[in-house]
Amino acid sequence: MATGNPSLRYHCVSVVAGPRACTAVRLLEGTRLLSADAPQLPLPDCECPADCGCTFRHHDDRRVGPRRARDSGRLADPWSLTERRHPGGRRSYD
């Protein structure tokens, strides 16, 4: 049995702007990026790279919020409660 934390397939990060954040970071703030695709900080467009206080916040998954209807308390299939079959058959004696 393996020990330690398993690597997560969709591990991602989001940029947390520091106190003197530049506009390049403000555009990325709140966006989740896969860890492999995340840029290094300070960003190349950073206006003050020597004093950059921006960091990454780590997330287990790239998705945000409930993904399915049943996760948010709604019916998964609203048509499942209604009978759609017509009584009787297609033949004249049914």
List keywords for this structure.
94 residues; mainly beta; 1 helix; 3 strands
How are the SSEs ordered, and which strands pair?
Layout: E1 12-16, H1 23-28, E2 32-34, E3 55-59
Antiparallel strand pairs: 1-2, 1-3
Strand portion: 5-15%
| Strands in their spatial order, largest beta sheet | 2-1-3
Termini separation comes to 63 Å
Mean pLDDT: 77
Element-level helix/strand string? EHEE
State the share of residues found in helices, binned by percent. Answer: under 10%
User: Would you identify the regions where 5 or more consecutive residues have pLDDT less than 50?
Assistant: none
The number of helical runs is: 1
In terms of quaternary structure, the protein is single chain
Descriptive notes:
With 94 residues, the chain is mostly beta strands. It has a domain at 12-65. The chain contains one helix and three strands. It has one helix spanning 23-28, and strands spanning 12-16, 32-34, 55-59.
Provide a brief overview of the structure.
This protein is mostly beta strands. The chain is built from one helix and three strands, in the order E-H-E-E. The N and C termini lie far apart (63 Å).
